[in-house]
Amino acid sequence: MSGFTVCGTVIHAPVCGEVEVLEDALIEVDETGHIVAVHLAGTDDYQELRRRASERGKLQLLAAGQYLLPGLVDLHIHAPQWPQLGKALHLPLYGWLHQYTFPLEAKYRDIGFAEAVYTSLVDTLVANGTTTALYFGTIHLEATKRLADICLARGQRGLVGKVAMDNPEECPDFYRDVSAERGLEDTRALIQYINALSGNETGLVKPVVTPRFIPSCTDEMLAGLAEIAGEYGCHIQTHCSESDWEHAYVINRHGRHDGQSLKEFGLLTNKTLLAHANFIDDADMDAIGQAQTGIAHCPLSNFYFSNAVFPARKALDRGLQVGLGTDISGGPDPSLLRNCSMAVTTSRALEEGVDPDADSDSRGTPGSRIDFREAFWMATTAGGLALDLKTGLFKQGYAFDAIVIDANVENSNLILWEGLDTHEDMLQKIIYSADRHNIIRVWVQGRLIKGDNNS
Amino acid sequence: MSGFTVCGTVIHAPVCGEVEVLEDALIEVDETGHIVAVHLAGTDDYQELRRRASERGKLQLLAAGQYLLPGLVDLHIHAPQWPQLGKALHLPLYGWLHQYTFPLEAKYRDIGFAEAVYTSLVDTLVANGTTTALYFGTIHLEATKRLADICLARGQRGLVGKVAMDNPEECPDFYRDVSAERGLEDTRALIQYINALSGNETGLVKPVVTPRFIPSCTDEMLAGLAEIAGEYGCHIQTHCSESDWEHAYVINRHGRHDGQSLKEFGLLTNKTLLAHANFIDDADMDAIGQAQTGIAHCPLSNFYFSNAVFPARKALDRGLQVGLGTDISGGPDPSLLRNCSMAVTTSRALEEGVDPDADSDSRGTPGSRIDFREAFWMATTAGGLALDLKTGLFKQGYAFDAIVIDANVENSNLILWEGLDTHEDMLQKIIYSADRHNIIRVWVQGRLIKGDNNS
Predict the structure, then answer these.
(1) Substitution target from B354, B410, B427 for chain A, most A beta carbons within 10 A
(2) CA distance B75 to B322
(3) How do residues B56-99 score in pLDDT, each as one tens digit?
(4) CB of B367 within 8 A of CB of B29?
(5) What is the three-class DSSP state of A118?
(6) Cα gap B230→B63, rounded to integer Å
(7) What percent of chain B has pLDDT over 70?
(8) Does the distance separating the beta carbons of B354 and A83 come in below 8 Å?
(9) For residues A374 and A17, what is the distance between their CA atoms, to the nearest angstrom?
């Protein structure tokens, strides 16, 4: 790949709660896919740089109505649950896992099935603008290797974990690591496989240590996984205080909340991502903040499996690194833009309350709302922060992970009204109305993986 | 138009809470666009009828992975608010009306602007599968006539109302009927215009008496509108107990709830549609049920402007005719399928509650949930029932208002997994994942208004 320069209307969110719009900005990308510089229109060298890029045939000019946004960062995806998206939404978490999800995940001993599903999923997420994806696989080493292969082949920044779950009291016989030892061994094998993958020299695809959640794992497994994560400097992902049942289970078994328990096991690091975290209290938030651990807020899933809504406003006000996750298939929508709008929606539900029979003074929790600016920051900048990866922003030294949203596409629900819509208005409309057809280009680390430069 | 026969997998919901799947059903449509008969595979004349239709070149055969569904019925749309979709979501109802919505609606004195917006809106709704649409226009007679014209030209079943709002205490000077008399006169003029529209002999487009809501109208206006509705046998639409502010306003002014007040004025008929109705109590429900008045549940909008969630389960259990509305632009999504999934989601929010700090025993309202079957019934069958129109079902004598959903479309988030997904599963997936690109054909009263018969 040789370097290139993109010129157009850029929208990103360097600061939580603020949107920065740069009209006619020039973004210079080098041959490694990283941003060399962002030049604002009107600055000293701007015209000269633009002329030079154009002369070298390296200028990609966006049209009016097209917007360059950071690629979206999805912090919580169960890859094997993709065929189940939109189904099996009627049971609480525990029953859902045992009746639907574990039986489905057990199928991934079949490599052909895994390849078909994972290819479909990665392609769908890329088409929806997800440039960085944090995946739970299954317990199966081989199937999970294929998921890493597919991310690499497709050019998606994929963080991939083999699920560790060995607790015979909470995991069925047909779907469980046969022992902690074996689970740890396979986790290690996946890390070594991904780190040695040919074509992955830049570390586009990364291994993730993945205890499903505390209920699924023995203490031996949890301790062993922490050791492996430390040894390899890996990311860690798990669920945290997701539902009444799960939260109560951990209190009952360990005498403390998930966050505190994960901390004791050494699983709360600056490269850890906690999915959901609905029931964390002030002490948990302190521990998570001190460890610079990330949270994957999964707003749509909250309504179906969490028994409550994550207090996003409160967590943001405490400075926590809260990004967004689709939680496929607990969250029945693969679009992170859609989950962006749902993050606003869930926060409004929390602020206003929902029960019309309750007194209006006591119905909701005032001060809980976030708006589209915070939600957009969560879907981009915060995703990068939470993962400790230089993505989610247009800034020197960051990977050029980006999408182009086109409001001129025909057959679209996203409509720009000249004279009525500012660029910031358009961002809000994009969050509520853009679909995959409006996403005409997707780059990861400078590589174009959807669309073409001439569209 | 000559008659035709469609053959394929049909999904509809004759009974609330149940989904009926008819494989290889034959639906015979006559030259007026009405359903002559639905023949099930395996019945006596089936093969003969199918052969005959095929020989006459009148058989439209759906492929595997294609589903014939009733056209969607959107019971609450503010047509002039279309340019604002996805914007201005941060204020409560009262402030939102005065700061954003009334100024926008006032622009529709400009007929060119009205034509541009209304064309864009009707096209968008048709593309998203909405075959029947109940529209609020603005106070402007001419602009509202154009909306009726556009529905007729596009072939959408449109029910169109000129908004009546004359109360100087609640409506701004720049956007108000100058008097009750004038508002009533213009309402009458719109009814006469639509009833006499050339090409509208079958009554595809219908006039609707449209008091915005009680706060906007003087008692003189309310009484006069009821009289006009009676005189012409018209539909009526208005808002009912939408938010804390609105609900309290009516109690304060009339000493009773919206439902009771509308009843007193003679505005609660079997052709009335009440939008929202979040705060109706048992007595209101009784009055609404006795009058066979319809309710437009607008689930997404609930979270933004209603301060609470409509108790859909309770209303359905009482036998009320509850359909769905997008509430454009209070609800920031034009897709009724999306609002179908949101109807499930809001009901789950009500059932589970949202506040993680609340005790799990007191957090929600048990027994509040609906599932995709009820939501689908609301979006189709109930819409027809609420409007007293023969649409929303595949049944002899009903209009052939229908859409074809294609799960084979490329570049789609809707994916059919052979061997894993039943037809009923696919309906659920359609509700959560289909977008306008999956809707490859739309008919209204037998006229194909999106797609072609050979796709």
Answers:
(1) B354
(2) 10
(3) 999 999 999 999 999 999 999 999 999 999 999 998 899 999 99
(4) no
(5) helix
(6) 47
(7) 99
(8) no
(9) 4
A400 to chain B, any CB pair closer than 8 A? The answer is no
Q: Do A432 and B124 touch (CB under 8 A)?
A: no
Chain B, residues 320-379, CB within 8 A of chain A, namely 332-335, 341, 344-346, 348-350, 352-358, 360, 363-365, 371-372
- Beta carbons of B333 and A433 less than 8 Å apart: yes
Closest residue in B to A358 (Cα) is B308
CB contact under 8 A, A429 and B124: no
With residue B240 as reference, give the H or E element that holds it: strand B235-240
pLDDT (mean) for B182-200: 98
Q: B354, A308: Cβ pair inside 8 Å?
A: yes
Answer yes or no: are the C-beta atoms of B36 and B62 closer than 8 Å: no
Q: Is the pLDDT of residue B135 over 80?
A: yes
When CB atoms are compared, the residue of B307, B348, B421 closest to A352 is: B307
**Helix ranges (DSSP H) in A233-309:** 244-254, 258-264, 282-290, 299-305
Letter for the amino acid at A251? Answer: I
Q: Tokens 């003969």 sit at which residue?
A: B48
CA angle B383, B387, B390 (to 5 degrees): 80
Model pTM above 0.95: yes
The model's pLDDT over B16-49, given as tens digits with 9 standing for 90+, comes to: 999 999 999 999 999 999 999 999 999 989 999 9
- Band (pLDDT 50/70/90 cuts) for residue B455 is low
Cβ–Cβ under 8 Å, residues A405 and A439: yes
Report chain B's terminal Cα–Cα distance, integer Å: 19
Per CB-CB distance under 8 Å, the chain A contacts of B334 are 413, 433
Chain A residues whose beta carbon lies within 8 Å of the beta carbon of residue B435:
435-437
Q: Is the model more confident about B454 or about B180?
A: B180
* pLDDT at position B454: 65
**Whole-angstrom distance, CA of residue A314 vs CA of residue A303:** 19
CB–CB of A432 and B86 under 8 A? Answer: yes
DSSP-assigned letter for residue B17:
T
- Nearest beta carbon to residue A436 from set B349, B411, B431: B411
The answer to whether the bond into B347 is cis (omega within 30° of 0) is: no
Give the pLDDT band (50/70/90) at residue B253.
very high
- Cα–Cα distance, A115 to A190 (Å, whole number): 16
- Rounded to whole angstroms, how far apart are CA atoms B437 and B411? 9
DSSP designation for A238: E
Shortest alpha-carbon distance between residue A36 and chain B (Å): 33
List, in sequence order, every residue forming a beta bridge with B381; answer none if it has no partner: none
Give CA angle at B380 (B376, B385), nearest 5°.
125
Position B271, amino acid: K
Residue type, B6: V
Q: Tokens 């809000």 sit at which residue?
A: A428
Q: Which of A354, A360, A420 sits opposite B354 (nearest CB)?
A: A354
Residues of chain A found within 8 Å of residue B354, distances taken between Cβ atoms: 308-309, 346, 349-350, 353-354
Spatial distance between the Cα atoms of B413 and A124, rounded to a whole number of angstroms: 6
A421 neighbourhood in chain B, CB within 8 Å: 83, 87
**10-residue mean pLDDT series, chain A (455 residues):** 93 98 98 97 94 96 97 98 95 92 98 98 98 98 98 98 98 98 98 98 98 98 98 98 96 97 98 98 97 98 96 98 98 98 98 96 96 98 98 98 97 95 97 98 98 76
Count interface pairs A-B at CB distance under 8 A. Answer: 164
A425: which chain B residues are within 8 Å (Cβ-Cβ)? 87
Q: Is B244 on the interface with A (CB under 8 A)?
A: yes
Average pLDDT, chain B: 97
CB B88 within 8 A of CB A429: no
Distance from CA of B46 to the nearest CA of A (A): 33
